[in-house]
Design a protein that fits this description.
By secondary structure, the chain is an alpha+beta fold. The protein has helices spanning 10-19, 23-32, 75-87, 97-102, 104-121, and strands at 43-48, 51-57, 62-67, 91-96. The protein is globular and about 30 Å long. The mean pLDDT is 82.
């Protein structure tokens, strides 16, 4: 996925990807959804920089990408994708599908660590003056 996967209708593509999630995406989503991981809210299949990111925690600008076997053959394209997403101000972390399947606890621990690091770098903003 080195080139943007869409130029128009990103919402439609993201919806299609959500409706046809892989088993690995569903497995990780089960642990990320509903703010289950340290209270951080995640969304899945979100358009960013002309790509659809697998998972996004927008409050700390953290993107999680899952890579299957085909990504071995497209490492250069994935690097371009990562650089473009990072150029938009996001941090990207990647996991192999087999890591999610075989070492889910370690993957979740690494995500929690990245969330903590990112929340330190992006503290919650103060409320608006005069606002509640």
């Amino acid at each position: 996925m080195g080139r943007p996967v869409f130029r128009s209708r990103p919402t439609k593509l993201a919806r299609q990807l959500r409706n046809h999630a892989t088993d690995v995406e569903r497995k990780l989503w089960y642990h990320l959804r509903a703010s289950q991981l340290n209270g951080f809210k995640f969304r899945r299949q979100i358009p960013i920089a002309g790509y659809v990111a697998d998972f996004l925690c927008s409050s700390v600008r953290l993107v999680i990408e899952l890579d299957g076997g085909q990504h071995d053959l497209q490492a250069g394209e994935d690097e371009v994708r990562t650089r473009r997403i990072e150029a938009e101000g996001y941090r990207v972390i990647r996991f192999w599908n087999n890591d999610v399947n075989d070492s889910l606890d370690a993957v979740l621990a690494r995500i929690a660590e990245a969330l903590a690091e990112s929340s330190e770098a992006h503290p919650q903003p103060l409320p608006h003056a005069g606002g509640e």
